[in-house]
Structures are given as C-alpha cells and as structure tokens.
Amino acid sequence: MQIISDRQSLTHQIDKWKKQGHAIGFVPTMGALHEGHLSLVKLAQDKTDKCVVSIFVNPTQFAPHEDFDSYPRDVEGDAKKLSELGVDVIYTPSKDEIYAEGMGTEIKAGEAALGLETGFRPHFFGGVVNVVSRLFGHVQPDIAVFGEKDFQQMQVIREMVETYDMPVEIIGGKIIRDKDGLALSSRNAYLSEKELLVAKQLNKIIAEANVEDANQALLDAGFDKVDYVEKRWGRILAAAWIGKTRLIDNIAV
Ligand code: AMP
Questions:
Q1: What is the value of pTM for the model shown?
Q2: How far is CA 223 from the centre of its chain?
Q3: What is the C-alpha to C-alpha distance for residues 52 and 10, in angstroms, rounded to an integer?
Q4: Which tens digit of pLDDT belongs to each residue from 27-76?
Q5: Considering the chain, what is the average pLDDT of its residues?
Q6: Where on the phi/psi map is residue 140: left (φ > 0), alpha (ψ -120 to 50), or beta?
Q7: What pLDDT does 200 receive?
Q8: 45 close to 25: Cβ distance less than 8 angstroms
Q9: At CA 197, angle to CA 196 and CA 202, rounded to 5?
Q10: How far is the CA of 37 from the centre of ligand 1 (A)?
Q11: Secondary structure class of 139 (helix, strand, coil)
Q12: In the chain, which residues have pLDDT < 50?
C-alpha cells in the first residue's frame, strides 16, 4: 500500500493503472476510520481491482464555529486498517493540493441540497461538492462509494455527477451500526458514557415514533436540541444534538 500526498505522484500511478486496463474504485473520507468506512472500502474492492481511499478533513465544509480543529485525526491508525484490507493507495492531499486553484466553487450543489442539513449548515454541501469534484479530478475513479449514513450527501453527489456529466458511477453503502443500532460515526468519539446512552436512542426513536412525535421523543430521551426529523426519499432523516455533539441518522420507511 502506498501513501501518496501529492497530486503528481497520484496521477502517475493512476495513469499507469489505466494503461494496464484496471478499473479504479474510490472512497473519500475524513479519516478516523471505523467499520462504516471499511464496509465502503470492501464494496469498492468487490467491484474494481484497484482501490484508492482519500483522507482529507475538508475545511470548506466546516463553518468557523464548527469542529474542524478538534475533528478526530489518526492517519497512522487509519493506514493500519486500510493496509489490512489490501487498499492500494491512501491519498492524503494537503489543503494546498486540493485548493491550488483557489477556494471558489465552480460547481454548485443542486436541488438535493435544499432543506434538511442546509437549514442548519448552509455552507456544508457547497464544501462537499467542491472537494468531491476536485478529488474525482485527481483520482479519476470508475466508481466511488458513499455511505447511506449521510443520505442527503449521497443524493447531492448523485445529482452533481448527473448534472455535470462526470464519468463515475456512484455506489451507496448501507449504514453500519453498533449492537444497539447506533450508526457508527467518527464524531461518536466525542460522547461521554452518559451521552452515548442517549445517542443510542436516536435510531430507535426515528424507527418507532411518527415524524410529528419524534422531535419531542428525542428531547424526552435526553437530546438537547433537534435540528430536524423529516421524511424524504422514502427515509426518515434526523439530526439532533447531545451537548456539543451533533448526530445524524436515517432509516428506510
Ligand atoms: P466521513 O469520513 O464522515 O466524511 O465519511 C466518509 C464516508 O463514510 C461517507 O460516504 C459516509 O457516508 C460514510 N460513512 C460514515 N459513517 C458510516 C456508517 N456508519 N456506515 C456506512 N457508511 C458510513
């Protein structure tokens, strides 16, 4: 497994693989990898013969008051997990490598970005399409895998690929949960033991309560604030806060 940080070396490797006729699978991440991320890697590996995983904590999808600085980072631990899976390349670009041509967005998030997350994190999907389109340009994947955990994000990416006619197939990976149904998330690391007990109610409440009742049910379960519980795309999607930690989840209905 190679760890590559500069675009030129990555392009060199990708060109070589393409000449040899290999298909390239890509999993973009922000690191602090857990079984959720690793399941996406396995999906990519099932479908292609070369797998690239990027680790890049993207500054443009965090607002100034959000957790960019404290976001968990563990490249060494991540590399160990990815190497055990037989990943071919970890791409760890610097901010300059990604934003060499400026921070501006040439492409915009489409209709899928309206509402839900955007109501509370208006900067978010602009940052996401900005970075994912650039990463696609660097990695030139045949397929890219995104988790249903971030369901709206996956829809925004699908719309981007269609709108801008990007030559990549988007594959969705199922949400990986712990034994209590809590969706795995790098941000779960922020939770105290007591908060974790509250967090574990999120999936149960959105699965069992009506959308109209879920808000109050979450507050009753110990969540401090509910950003939304809404039905869209045949899913119930929710975002709620426990202390300083914001959790999202969704479930098929
Ligand atoms: P992140 O590192 O949080 O940006 O996530 C990178 C990718 O992993 C995204 O496509 C997420 O949707 C996906 N992901 C995160 N958590 C999970 C999970 N519990 N199950 C499946 N996919 C996940």
A1: 0.97
A2: 23
A3: 10
A4: 999 999 999 999 999 999 999 999 999 999 999 999 999 999 999 999 99
A5: 96
A6: left
A7: 98
A8: yes
A9: 90
A10: 5
A11: helix
A12: none
CA dihedral 210, 114, 127, 157 (to 10 degrees): 80
The pLDDT, as a whole number, for residue 133 is 96
Separation of alpha carbons 141 and 48, rounded Å: 10
| Number of neighbours of residue 66 by Cβ within 10 angstroms | 14
Sign of the CA dihedral running 68, 122, 105, 54: positive
Instruction: For residues 128 and 126, give the distance between their C-alpha atoms in angstroms, rounded to a whole number.
Output: 5
Residue with the smallest CA separation from ligand 1 atom 22 is 147
Instruction: State residue 105's pLDDT score.
Output: 60
The residue whose C-alpha atom lies closest to atom 14 belonging to ligand 1 is 147
* Amino acid, single-letter form, for residue 189: A
Residues with catalytic roles: 37
**If you measure from the C-alpha of residue 186 to the centroid of ligand 1, how many angstroms do you get, rounded to a whole number?**
9
CA of 56 to the centre of ligand 1 (A): 13
CB 19 within 8 A of CB 50: no
Task: Give CA–CA dist 165/171, Å, rounded.
Answer: 16
Burial category of 40 from C-beta neighbours within 10 Å (exposed 0-12, middle 13-18, buried 19 and up): buried
Q: How far is CA 55 from CA 24, 31, 37, 222, in A?
A: 17, 5, 11, 33
- Distance separating alpha carbons of residues 2 and 5, to the nearest angstrom: 10
Q: Whose CA is nearest to atom 10 of ligand 1?
A: 146
Distances (CA, A) of 134 to 63, 129, 173: 20, 8, 22
